[in-house]
Amino acid sequence: MTGLITVRNGGEGCYEEKKSRFLAAVYSVESDEQAASYIEAARRKYWDARHNCYAFVIGSNNETTRCSDDGEPSGTAGKPILEVITRAGIHNCLIIVTRYFGGTLLGTGGLVRAYTAAAKDALATSELIMLVPGVRYMITTDYTDEGKIRRSLPEYDGVIEDVGYSADVAMKVHIKSEYSKAFMDRITEITGGRAVVKEDGTLPVEIPYIIE
């Protein structure tokens, strides 16, 4: 299965080395301006920290890529954070790692390990999704078939967007494009042809994603 991996809900992480604390946070971003806003907010929140380093990628092909060492030795902070993002294959993602200096220098190797570990820790607590091509369907059926349709959705990675109740049940669902025909056939089968199914446009379907 292929699709665009991105952040639904950002997480936080922490790493400590020789009394230096590295606090990391993950954000979903879609523009330079949005990333800059989160970075500035982190600088205000952690005004007393020694460094607020970051990296972010934007676009389905990582058209925009930025990173900053924020005063750390060149290549020891921003680049390692960026590599955590790109190696995980995540898009539209910002990770900020704030360092509180503990009084002991860590050396370039120690800094790379620390910033990498903090970024990975925050990413591990984030909720990630894969966006795959999908189709929206409007399904109109009677009340006796609603439960059958609901139970069939997980088989096709289906998601219910909305349900309306009147004389009939009107369900708006999203299905992965690759399952379109199989889903239509299944609905016809389980409802005995009673359900009316109409395509209502295309849109991405969100699939939960876990970094292996």
What are the key terms here?
single chain; 212 residues; alpha+beta; Ribosomal Protein S5, domain 2; Alpha-Beta Plaits; five-stranded antiparallel β-sheet; 5 helices
Please tell me about this protein's structure.
- There is one protein chain.
- With 212 residues, this protein is of the alpha+beta class.
- The protein folds into 2 domains: 4-125, Impact, N-terminal domain (Ribosomal Protein S5, domain 2, 2-Layer Sandwich), CATH 3.30.230; 131-209, Alpha-Beta Plaits.
- It contains 5 helices and 10 strands.
- Strands 1, 7, 8, 9 and 10 form a 5-stranded antiparallel sheet that branches.
- Strand 8 and strand 9 (169-176) form a beta hairpin.
- The chain is elongated and about 70 Å long.
- The mean pLDDT is 93.
Summarize the structure.
It is elongated and about 70 Å long. Helix content is 30%, strand content 41%.
Strand and helix layout:
Layout: E1 4-9, E2 12-17, E3 20-28, H1 32-45, E4 51-58, E5 64-68, H2 78-87, E6 93-100, H3 107-124, E7 127-141, H4 143-152, E8 159-165, E9 169-176, H5 180-190, E10 196-209
Helix pairs in contact: 2-3
Question: What about the largest sheet?
Answer: 5 strands, antiparallel
Low-confidence stretches: none
Total helical segments: 5
Structural class: alpha+beta
Along the chain, the helix and strand elements come as EEEHEEHEHEHEEHE
Principal-axes shape call: elongated
Mean pLDDT: 93
Radius of gyration based on Cα positions: 23 Å
CATH class of the largest domain: Alpha Beta
In helices, the fraction of residues equals: 25-40%
Q: How many strands? A: 10
CATH architecture of the largest domain: 2-Layer Sandwich
Tally the structural domains. Answer: 2
Strand content: 35-45%
Do you know the CATH topology of the largest domain? Ribosomal Protein S5, domain 2
CATH superfamily of the largest domain: Impact, N-terminal domain
Ends distance: 14 Å
